[in-house]
Structure formats: structure tokens, C-alpha cells
Amino acid sequence: MIKYLLIGLLMLLPLAAVSAQPAIPTRPPMDETPFEDRVYEVFVPERDEDDDSLMPLLFVLHGASGSGHRTREWLGFDEPAQAAGFIVVYPTGIANNWDFGGGIRTQDGIILSDDVSYLVWLAEQLADEYPVDTTRIYATGMSNGAQMAYYLACQAPETFAAVAGVAAPLSGSTATRCATSPIPVLIINGTLDRILLWQPQTTADGRVISLGTLGTIEFWARRSQCNVEDDAVIVDNLPDTDPDDESTVRHIALNECANGTNVQFYGVIGGGHTWPGHPLDIEFDLGPTNMDIDATALIIDWLQGLPAPEAAEVGSD
After folding, report:
1. What percent of the chain clears pLDDT 70, i.e. is strictly above it?
2. What is the rounded distance in angstroms from the CA atom of residue 226 to the CA atom of residue 255?
3. Domains detected in the chain
4. Euclidean distance between the first and final Cα of the chain, in Å?
5. C-beta separation of 304 from 136 below 8 A
6. Beta-bridge mates of residue 269
7. What is the pLDDT of residues 197-242, one digit of tens each?
8. How far apart are CA 265 and CA 252, in angstroms?
9. Which of 89, 126, 161, 295 is most solvent-facing, going by the fewest CB within 10 Å?
């Protein structure tokens, strides 16, 4: 079972203190920015003029206080997207954050933003403008962006066919409001992440804030009805190609899941709140960045290898 495969990772960690989030007001104001006025950048691969084939579309969602532009420069998706034939969109959230069901905290208080509707709308707009394969629209993100990607998988699976999350477990509120259809998911988390902890988090009254890494894997495995018997689970300790990065990577693959889906997990032992392969030069210490893998290339490769799902109308109910 997954639980026993991960026990070696869990034993490396001290127990984390339970942390509570401040109560959210019952009726925060809703952001009223028109979708047409919101900011995003798009990368479209260069190709032969006579090539009219449809291309996958990947949403790359920034972390808290980030932006689409800075994330585009940092994570370097354009180059592998050119090689793989992916259109990539880098949207920016309201107040530089994403609302995955609980509002956005700003200096003036909490506001709500219907980011699911916005991102579905944006997918529709891009499909009207570019040759998008509407059965292959995906989302990935870091931290707050990863939590938003998971929320899209729960709230808009008719639009988003697969998601990948880096440096974020699944939130408890998202897990309680989630579709049940199988969906491919890729997860990359660091055992020493001090921002969004590896361990599950609950409030003093028992409300689940975060499922933690183990709970996140189990949640997606259940949703996609994956076979988690020992002989069906592939476990690899990846080569430690950079001994100076203070971390190693363990890969767990659940490939026998319903409807051709799969769940992939990369546990970065000793890794922090970081994106493997792409160090971020800021004053705040986010912990070690693993350099044994390149999460950007890994996500593109994984998405490219997914079987094409059945045709579906973007944004349909």
C-alpha cells in the first residue's frame, strides 16, 4: 500500500505543530474585475505554415504574490513547450493570488474571486483564437498555483484533463468539494517544506486545513480508482546527480488507474518549498532546491505521454 511505501519518508520528519487559519468572514466582497481586463501572457509554438493540427494548452499558475510574467521567466516552460508543441498561458491572479475556494487575503481584508469561472472562460477564449485541442487542456502550478490547479481538477474536470502540483498538498476544503471522475495527477512535494507542510494540518477543533502529502496521494489514487497493491506500484529512487543540492528524489507511480489515468508522485527528500531544477533568487529562505530533476521538463513530458481523452466541449456542464 502507498502508506507503507512512504513510511520511510515520513520517519525522516519531526511531527509538525497543528496550525489554525484565521476565521474567514461569512460574506467577503467579490472582486468585480471583468474577465476581459485581467492579465495573462501566451506562448504559441512556431511551426510550419501548413501545419493546422490542434495543440494542447497548458495553464501555468503562479504562487502567492507572483505573476504570470515572472513565473514565465522563472520556470522556463516556453522552450520545452516549443519542442512538444504546447500552447502555454501564464495568467495573473487578482491581488497576485488565486482563490481556490476560501477567498484571497489582501491588505484590505479578504476578497473573493471566481477564478474557476475565469480560467474556464480564458480556456474558451484561447480555443477561439488558437488551434487548441480542447480535450487536452491542462493546469500546473507552484504553491498557491498548485492548490488552484487541484481546485480546477475538482471543480472543472470537463475543461481540465490533467493537473500537476508542485510544493502544495491538497487543501481540506477542496477535498470536500471535488468531482469523482478519474483524472491524471502529478505531485511534487518536498519533505522539508516550511510553507505548506508535508504533514496534514488541522485546527484545534478538528477542521482539516491540509491533507498533507500522504493524504493528497491517497485522495487522487482513490478518485482515479488506482490499483495500490504492492505489485502494481512502481517505486524508484532517482539518481542523485547533484550531491550538493541537499536532497534526493523518490518516484512512486500508480499506473493502473481507471480510464487510462495515472497518479505520479515525486517526493523530494530534504527539499523545501521550491520548484526542482529552477532555483529562485530571493532573500527569504525557501529551503533546498533539488537539481536532480527539472520539474518543468518532467511535467511537459508527462502531459505529452498521456493518452488523449474523449472529445469534450470546453466549459460544458
Report:
1. 89
2. 7
3. 26-305 (3.40.50.1820)
4. 35
5. no
6. 248
7. 999 999 999 999 999 999 999 999 999 999 999 999 999 999 999 9
8. 5
9. 126
